[in-house]
Amino acid sequence: MRFALIVLAVLIAGGAGYYYWQSQAQSGFEVQTAPAKRGDIRRAVSTTGTVTPLVTVNIGSQLSGNIGKINVDYSSKVKAGDVLARIEPSTFETKVKEARAAVDIAKANVALQGAEVDKAKANLTKADLDLDRAKKLVQRGASSQATLDEAVAAQAAAEADLAIARANVENAAATVDQKEATLENAEVDLARTYIRSPIDGVVIEKAVEVGQTVAASFTAPELFIIAQDLSQVQIEAEVDEADIGQVAAGDAVSFTVDAYPFETFAGEVDQIRLAPTDLENVVTYTVIITAANRDGKLLPGMTANVSIVTGEHADVVTVPSQALRFEPRGAAEALVQEDGTAPGETGPANAEQEKVVRQLKEYLDLSEDRIARIRDALKAEFERTAEEDSGGMGIPSRGDEEERNRLRRNNVLRTQLSAEEYRQFEMGQRQAQGRRGTVWLYENGKLVPRDVRLGLADATDTEVQEGLEPGTEVVLRVREQDE
User: Fold this and answer.
1) What is the largest CA-CA distance in the chain?
2) What is the C-alpha R_g of the chain?
3) Using one digit for the tens of pLDDT, what is the confidence trace for 399-412?
4) Model pTM above 0.70
């Protein structure tokens, strides 16, 4: 029983193959088809970029001197405040001692001037007493006016001396402030001999060695570069202007690096920088991608081969993109099944003409009589221009042929449609551009066009959102069979 079923299956398969071969042979063409199928599709933009830390800090020195000690090396992990190196401090320690001694002298001078104030006060008190005594003696007639004048002058001089003494105290106090500021500056410079890390991170560059002279006359020399938290990295990728419109913040990213060619890393678009880069007339934009690096495999400077996922649909109908590029040309146009006509009846460019007719039916509400007149006008225009082109040399490229078809179509539609109808037709084409297409089916020995609504596309397949069922065979290629 089982053997009989196997034989029957082989006979059925052979019969189907024979029927297909016979239909191909009878038509004189070999038609290659592929089925529409369900699957996942992902649209992606591919580029390259460089792995960099999220934050890097260049650490220099504000002082000049010799490096006396270095506490870190390449790849050392550091915390904020850790001492990375120290400039030989003896010169700066001496300046601190000098400044501290100057502060002590200034404070002593304040005390000295304070004593002078006390002395001036005592002299003023004596002068006040002498003046009172002289006034009383003059009133009694026991002393001359000259003695009183001398007492008045002495009292005024004592007041002036007290004012001077007080001013000297203020001056001495200001000198103390000045010397203390100098001391603080010296202490700051001494503290700056310690080169400290401002952040938690990893040392990725060390540009000095012990004993090396650091000169900070005009700019701070770069001593270390620290990368902050390499558990998170970013990739600076350059995206071509033709693709940047598809990229948005939040898009998922997958990438590989040459060090781990069989491992795929995940990331996300964080930022799209608006400043373009123009290199030899190629315009690109920098896209910042963030990625986790918990195991530390991604190192700064690595080249990442990036794939930015700009769209992803699961369980959709797809066809090979080759099917959307297929158009019956040459002898294969004889297989085209027209609406209500026999194959080949409308001339060599009937596929393009019927495509225009289908678009007119979709975009405009025209009567069947007008559609028939436009079809006849298209046929006449295509035949007329085909005769004119036949006198040329060579075979036109696909781009040239598409432009000729566009001109032929417009020549007819401008005469057959009103200005408003033509505007609506053009608007319908613009709205449908990039989301509609045509695939061809092979039914009963005829090529039949099918308009479809398109979605995402990857390198090989295109999503069909409307107009095609899974399992439908679509034409990829038609070739004449050899005699």
Assistant:
1) 166
2) 47
3) 466 677 778 888 88
4) no
